[in-house]
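Continuing the batch. This is chain 6 of the set; chains 1 through 5 are on the previous pages. Same settings as before, nothing changed between runs. Recording input and output for traceability.
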Amino acid sequence: MMQNKQLLKQIMTTDQIKAYILNLAETMPANAPEDFYDVFEAFLSGLEDGSIRSAVKLNGDWQAQGWVKRGILLGFKYGEVVPMGTESSFKFFDKHTYPTQYMNGSERSIRIVPGGSTVRRGSFIANRVTMMPPMYVNAGAFVDEGTMIDSHALVGSCAQIGKRVHLSAAAQIGGVLEPIGAVPVIVEDDCMIGGNTGIYEGTIIRKKAVIGAGVVLTRSTPVYDIVNQRIIRAGKDKTLEIPENAVVIPGTRKISGNEWAASNGLSIQCPIIIKYRDDKTDDATELEDLLR
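Output for chain 6:
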């Protein structure tokens, strides 16, 4: 289906790939143009080597790259469902534009422990990333150096994961393809994401934050910072952000304005910033260096 990756990278620049995708997304023919799959291979290769990203950080702010999301969506539109796998392995059926990614772990010091893990084409996996089974990394995702993705964890489409992050067991990092202009979920360097957490709808976790087990963060989630006595919310044009070094745990708050709820002692789950990271917190996360 595709030409040689290195040859395509020499032929097409990122700007040329971008222009092609934007033009095709505007015209949207019913069938893929004859040259689409070759350009799409160059696009996937750029995602996989990190030269193309779905979000970039400029002057401290994360900005979505809408054309990258459009490119990913075009891959789904023009992909054909085909059988994949071999006769001796598990058979599955998916778009031929998004097969599983070939990983040369020995050259890049990547560990993918056997047992049901999958890395999809169009995702970037940096050196010294460790992946425990079963886990999944979707197209458009970016996972930086030294990160660990633990069992049952998900890195959704276009999510951006920084260096030395630990995504604990069953952590769900949501993907964002639409709306096109929406920033995907961002987890910056040196964060600890606890087990059974859910981070969705473009939430940004700033560097060195700790998200405790069971915390769920969405665009509509208010976060109660008891250290600074403030409530952190997303704005009309601003996503929810967890500050640097914040330690977030699950908590509850009373339901106000409802006598029946009050009489029954009902409360709503809410995330609480209980403190900001200190030496004791760092001691508790030193195990990560040994696991890597």
